[in-house]
Task: inverse folding
């Protein structure tokens, strides 16, 4: 058990300091924390951190060096320090967001809406783990202390992760976007993954909840929540998407929430991102933004790796490298069907972390790929080959250059090319090679 005095000392020593947990990234003056991971123990790299200029180190192990402060458990002190910081904040609302897809998008839009009421603290980037979230709080504590609203992203890769994050933040508004097949390979089955996501509602401070109404499991669960509940989705929900279309590079959205609303959104938003907007809209309404949509005319999604649309020499190119799941493919296809093109071509790589569902997942992906006029499979990871059961690919290759060259020869003005795979597949290399060939032609 970490003592209160140890936590206070830790907070004092790390205030206004750059905190690093990877010894390879240490610069002069940084504070290095040796954390125990599943594969690597950061305490084994204390010497390297000191040699690179770390001015202070926290470690589980004892070292004969005044710059190294020993604590009983570096992982635990990080969590307890984050709790302490939050207890000293003046946040009137803490919003926790989780789901298989769309967490960061919902966090960004929610933060934008809430900024119309007051200062907002949001966890940086996708720092949504029991290490990333506390680090975000520690390194940005001044911003947190001046904020009225806090928006926190909760991720999970193994059972119990979300409950740990809930224990740190204790959100009063909990948002569960969806429960899909992403990371299912890390769980016993889909039901265990569902229960993991539902654990966001175990917060002791919970007073309101927002859930994705497209999932009957979430609808049923919401009926038993003893708090105010709002649903978003397609039908019979508090925020419903009636229709959407694309016009001159913008997105036209018709939704219903206490009446019909019509907004023009800057840029091309996918169907999944529009659902995320629905969740953020309901969060804003719960907190007190009377009509969030009036602020959307000037808002642009701050991403370049999620359903990003470019038009080059008459060719529509869409890159989507942030993550991949069957659900995100379905959402993307629904969006692509609304974009005008002569032919639609998919360049697909594997969906990772599927475990025993790997073969079935990629066979189902093959069914989805059959909606395209042509399909190319990037076999950097071989699991994607199972898609061939339900679609006949025009090319199967693990070579970035070969696929880029095939696309350059076969794609013509008026076509649409969609690139998507899990992040670790590094499909970006194929995309960049193809774009360079188009630009140089």
Result:
């Amino acid at each position: 058990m970490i003592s209160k005095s140890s936590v206070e000392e830790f907070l004092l020593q790390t205030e206004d300091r750059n905190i690093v947990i990877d010894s390879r990234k240490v610069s002069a003056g940084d504070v290095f924390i040796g954390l125990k991971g599943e594969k690597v123990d950061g305490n084994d790299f204390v010497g390297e951190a000191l040699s690179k200029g770390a001015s202070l180190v926290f470690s589980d192990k004892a070292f004969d060096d005044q710059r190294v402060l020993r604590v009983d458990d570096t992982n635990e002190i990080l969590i307890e320090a984050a709790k302490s910081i939050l207890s000293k904040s003046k946040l009137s609302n803490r919003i926790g967001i989780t789901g298989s897809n769309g967490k960061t998008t919902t966090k960004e839009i929610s933060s934008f809406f809430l900024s119309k009421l007051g200062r907002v603290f949001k966890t940086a980037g996708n720092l949504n783990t029991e290490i990333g979230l506390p680090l975000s709080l520690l390194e940005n504590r001044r911003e947190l202390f001046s904020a009225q609203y806090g928006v926190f992203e909760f991720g999970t890769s193994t059972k119990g992760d979300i409950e740990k994050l809930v224990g740190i933040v204790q959100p009063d508004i909990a948002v569960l976007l969806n429960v899909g097949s992403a990371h299912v390979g890390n769980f016993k089955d889909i039901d265990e993954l569902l229960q993991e996501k539902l654990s966001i509602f175990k917060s002791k401070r919970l007073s309101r909840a927002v859930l994705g109404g497209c999932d009957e499991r979430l609808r049923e669960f919401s009926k038993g929540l003893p708090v105010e509940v709002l649903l978003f989705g397609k039908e019979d929900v508090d925020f419903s998407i009636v229709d959407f279309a694309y016009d001159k590079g913008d997105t036209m959205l018709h939704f219903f929430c206490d009446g019909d609303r019509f907004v023009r959104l800057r840029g091309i938003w996918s169907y999944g991102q529009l659902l995320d907007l629905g969740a953020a809209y309901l969060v804003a309404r719960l907190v007190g933004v009377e009509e969030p949509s009036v602020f959307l005319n000037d808002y642009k999604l701050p991403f370049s790796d999620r359903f990003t649309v470019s038009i080059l020499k008459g060719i529509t190119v869409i890159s989507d490298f942030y993550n991949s799941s069957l659900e995100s493919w379905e959402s993307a296809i629904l969006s692509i069907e609304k974009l005008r093109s002569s032919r639609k071509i998919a360049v697909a790589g594997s969906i990772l972390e599927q475990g025993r569902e790997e073969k079935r997942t990629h066979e189902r992906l093959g069914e989805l790929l059959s909606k395209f006029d042509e399909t190319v499979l990037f076999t950097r990871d071989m699991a994607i080959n199972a898609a061939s059961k339900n679609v006949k690919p025009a090319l199967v290759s693990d070579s970035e250059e070969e696929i880029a060259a095939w696309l350059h020869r076969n794609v013509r003005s008026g076509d649409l090319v969609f690139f998507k795979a899990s992040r670790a597949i590094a499909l970006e290399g194929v995309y960049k090679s193809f774009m360079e060939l188009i630009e140089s032609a």
In short: The longest strand covers residues 239-247.
